[in-house]
Amino acid sequence: MPTPTMEDYIEQIYLLIETKGYARVSAIAEALQVKPSSVTKMVQKLDRDDYLNYEKYQGLILTAKGKKIGKRLVYRHELLEQFLHIIGVDDENIYRDVEGIEHHLSWNSIDRIGDLVQYFEEDSDRQKALEQTRNKLEKS
Ligand SMILES: [Mn+2]
């Protein structure tokens, strides 16, 4: 099982490869707001644990195991953003809040939150009803 820090790295590497086609140490460092030397160290650890293959000066590629986990981590992040948005959390809080909670929920909870998001997406009246409850509570 990857630690929360390892999860952040795998998630960002997966995202970078998905959007740019590659993931450089400098880009990972920028995305995670850490020093390039920390990235190099972590990337070497992820290589040892078989999440990716890293060749200095040649870049890195995710292994099948790294890709599978990366995909789930990106899905989890996006799902939690959707969830917070649906329940009415202000946009400016969403990213930071997701970063704070994403590593601390079981996949069981993630899947059930997935059901709830689905429930609200299926019928926009459900979102409106929730909004009405929120407005009522805010006024009282
Ligand atoms: Mn994240």
From TrEMBL:
Where exactly are the transmembrane stretches of this chain?
none
| Domain of life (superkingdom) | Bacteria
Q: Where in the cell is it found?
A: Cytoplasm
Could you say which residues bind Mn(2+) 2 here?
11, 77, 99, 102
Q: Which UniProt keywords apply?
A: Activator, Cytoplasm, DNA-binding, Manganese, Metal-binding, Repressor, Transcription, Transcription regulation
Extract one GO BP annotation from the record: intracellular manganese ion homeostasis
The principal location of this protein is: cytoplasm
Gene Ontology molecular function: any one: manganese ion binding
Q: GO CC annotations?
A: cytoplasm
Pfam families listed in its UniProt record: Fe_dep_repr_C (PF02742), Fe_dep_repress (PF01325)
The UniProt record gives the binding positions of Mn(2+) 1 as 8, 99, 102-103
- Alphabetized SUPFAM superfamilies for the sequence: Iron-dependent repressor protein, dimerization domain (SSF47979), Winged helix' DNA-binding domain (SSF46785)
The entry summarizes how activity is regulated as:
DNA binding is strongly activated by Mn(2+).
Q: Which residues form the HTH dtxR-type domain?
A: 1-63
| NCBIfam families documented for this protein | PRK03902.1
Q: Which family does it belong to?
A: Belongs to the DtxR/MntR family.
Instruction: Describe the task this protein carries out.
Output: Central regulator of manganese homeostasis.
Q: Which PANTHER family match?
A: IRON (METAL) DEPENDENT REPRESSOR, DTXR FAMILY, TRANSCRIPTIONAL REGULATOR MNTR
For this entry, the protein name equals HTH-type transcriptional regulator MntR
Give the classification, highest ranks.
Answer: Bacteria, Bacillati, Bacillota, Bacilli, Bacillales
